[in-house]
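A quick aside before the break. I want you to see a complete sequence-to-structure record at least once, exactly as it would be stored in a machine-readable document. Don't worry about memorizing anything.
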Amino acid sequence: MPEMPEVESLARFLTAHCVGKTIARVELTAFSALKTYAPPLSALHGLEIESVSRHGKFLDLDASGLHLIFHLARAGWLRWKDELPAAPARPGKGPLALRLRLDDDSGFDLTEAGTQRKLAVYVVSDPAEVPHIAGLGPDPMADDFDQAALDAVLDGAGRAQLKGVLKDQRTLAGIGNAYSDEILHVAKLSPFKASNSLTPDERGVLFHAIKDELADAIRRSEGLAAKDLKSEKKLGMRVHGRTGQPCPVCGDTVAEVSFADSSLQYCPTCQTGGKKLADRRLSKLLK
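That is the input. The structure line, written in tokens, reads:
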């Protein structure tokens, strides 16, 4: 799933390639992806793209005050093409969900792999009209997100586990499964530690881990084409997706906890005092 660093990089890529150009046509091929009906997609035709921005994991193309917003979900992606096929996109069983063509015939496809269709597209006059954007928590890369802001998040979460708090978009906008694993590894904190149990020192370490990990991921992705962002993300991971491999910090074996539809990875030595977490949905430290 694309998370904040990849979405931020896509926003910068689209800013460089789309701003100042006019939308010639938007073609929808997966009708389940479109979550709004008024204004219609056709209202975007002939409008100039003035800016591209990010709200958490949502991308927002501002076309003369009308916003095309999309969320790539778990299996979605944006594929840029300097020259799109001349033939109109047709609905079918393939991964293509939407095609946006610019006035110079460049543009992008939104695609989604797999059978679950969760990619979401909106056309709105105000980004706040998208319910999930209206409910987003603070952006940890915003200039005004400081230690006090994180402390308020942790206090408000009570005894909720750190992993879940970092991933909850209503609490913090933009962090997902992968970067929450990486942040907790750098901070040397158990994913199941209660949020309100952190000492002041641990809170400070967590704050800097959040800021540094996300900023470093954005730096690594800077200047890359959209097609290269996925591989760059994978290469930058130390524990996420690396079950059974040695921890690059201490050499212990990276362990995993599996859930119904996801998993997390962590280092027992770095994060849980050498103890392995039970691999079941309501995991607790093994005794």
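Two observations worth writing down. The radius of gyration is 20 Å. The longest strand covers residues 49-55. We'll return to this after the break.
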